[in-house]
């Protein structure tokens, strides 16, 4: 019996009434076809037929009939919705091959390429977000980092989100109040990069759905409020061979870890458009708000771009602090992995680690000033060379248009608008980032 049919039978037996087949668009946003469970049976075998011309950049109207194959290993029951529906991820096909415009395909191919080079990559993500009311938004609580007093308007939301992270299949997670008022962080456990990217999307859907029940919004907009910390999506990466973590050591980073750090730093500017992909992303990347502005690394230093976590014990991974939660996790993760792999394979040497606060360092590379600059810097990186070229071309074109739309709508240059959050950004990103 086909594996997909076994999954369908399990879902039906568990009382699932609807299947939401997920197609990931070029921005990393979920598009779904909602199918009653009995009708969904055929899709688990034959795939989901859909109009590709209506998904941004996927296809043209004259070549719009596409099929998405079901991934039977990527199924999440919407326990926050009473368990009556399930999210099932798909991969769009181009005939019998992976479609080049599907970012989920791009990440799968990246992981397979890393495996062909003799490595396994594991990846985890710390996803920050705000709970807000209205648009323009207002804060839900005035809590601080690791807030211990009960927050009546936000804690029930957070506790329910945590419950469903486990019940839906993502796994056990820890959370805490972050530095800014109304800001929280959830950890997606480390694992296969495609699985983690799927779980980032499931978490966003989950968080937004639970928040709506309480009359608030869970927003993954990188910088919803000027003058306080924005939200990052810190990505933790390790490379393995024959079951051994090549980044694991005591006190001193391994040669492989340092080489990976060097690769990530070398590609940081070209990868910025993939990991910090919105106009609003660059209002987060400003000094003294725990977001990186200098392309440097350090051990236990949260002001740098690449941090090696070290709590007086074992080193086992790198933490890339450049990304934010508006990123398409499939493209962002692929770009990070390719950069790290380039460093390892070329045995690159990073500069000396930075021990001081990095924000005021001079004579080092800095993050792009804005999205327009990030688009221009993207052409020389490992990701733009290795990812499917039609996908890269379409993505950069859409990001260039996004930048132009911002300038046209705001009616003033970046120099006059970089230090305020505009209504254009709230309309564009607050609910859908």
UniProtKB/TrEMBL annotation:
Ligase as UniProt keyword: yes
Domain of life: Archaea
Sequence ranges assigned to domain GS catalytic in this UniProt record: 103-433
Protein's UniProt keywords contain Cell membrane: no
Keyword annotations: ATP-binding, Ligase, Magnesium, Nucleotide-binding
Needed cofactors: Mg(2+)
InterPro entries: Gln_synt_N, Gln_synt_N_sf, Gln_synth/guanido_kin_cat_dom, Gln_synth_cat_dom, Gln_synth_gly_rich_site
GO molecular function term, any single one: ATP binding
Top EC group: ligase
Family assignment from sequence similarity: Belongs to the glutamine synthetase family.
Name the UniProt record assigns to this protein: Glutamine synthetase
Annotated source species: Pyrobaculum oguniense (strain DSM 13380 / JCM 10595 / TE7)
């Amino acid at each position: 019996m086909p594996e997909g049919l076994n999954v369908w039978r399990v879902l039906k037996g568990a009382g699932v009434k609807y299947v939401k087949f997920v197609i990931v668009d070029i921005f990393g946003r979920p598009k779904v076809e909602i199918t009653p469970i009995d009708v969904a049976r055929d899709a688990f075998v034959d795939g989901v037929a859909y109009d590709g011309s209506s998904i941004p950049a996927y296809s043209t109207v004259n070549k719009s009939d596409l099929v998405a194959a079901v991934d039977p290993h990527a199924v999440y029951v919407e326990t926050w919705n009473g368990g009556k529906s399930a999210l099932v991820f798909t991969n769009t096909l181009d005939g019998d091959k992976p479609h080049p415009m599907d970012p989920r395909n791009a990440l799968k191919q990246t992981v397979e390429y890393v495996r062909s080079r003799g490595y396994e990559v594991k990846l985890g993500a710390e996803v920050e977000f705000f709970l807000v009311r209205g648009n323009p938004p207002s804060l839900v609580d005035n809590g601080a980092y690791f807030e211990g007093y009960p927050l009546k308007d936000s804690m029930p939301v957070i506790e329910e989100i945590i419950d469903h992270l486990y019940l839906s299949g993502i796994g056990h997670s820890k959370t805490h109040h972050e530095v800014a008022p109304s800001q929280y962080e959830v950890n997606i456990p480390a694992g296969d990069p495609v699985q983690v990217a799927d779980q980032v999307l499931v978490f966003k859907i989950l968080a937004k759905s639970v928040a709506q029940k309480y009359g608030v919004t869970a927003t993954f907009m990188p910088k919803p409020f000027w003058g306080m910390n924005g939200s990052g999506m810190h990505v933790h990466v390790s490379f393995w061979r024959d079951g051994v973590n090549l980044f694991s050591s005591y006190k001193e980073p391994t040669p492989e870890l340092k080489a990976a750090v060097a690769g990530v730093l070398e590609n940081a500017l070209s990868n910025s458009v993939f990991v910090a992909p919105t106009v609003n992303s660059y209002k987060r990347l400003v000094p003294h708000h725990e977001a990186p502005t200098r392309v440097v690394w350090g051990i236990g230093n949260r002001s740098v771009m690449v941090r090696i976590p070290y709590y007086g014990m074992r080193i086992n991974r790198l933490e890339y602090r450049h990304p934010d939660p508006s990123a398409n996790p499939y493209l962002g993760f692929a770009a990070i992995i390719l950069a790290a792999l380039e460093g390892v394979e070329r045995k690159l040497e990073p500069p000396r680690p930075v021990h001081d606060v990095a924000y005021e360092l001079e004579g080092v590379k800095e993050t792009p000033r804005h999205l327009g600059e990030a688009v221009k810097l993207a052409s020389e990186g490992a990701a733009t060379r290795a990812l499917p070229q039609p996908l890269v071309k379409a993505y950069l074109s859409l990001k260039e248009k996004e930048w132009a739309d911002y300038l046209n709508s705001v009616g003033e240059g970046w120099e006059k608008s970089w230090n305020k959050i505009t209504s254009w950004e709230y309309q564009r990103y607050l609910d859908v980032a």
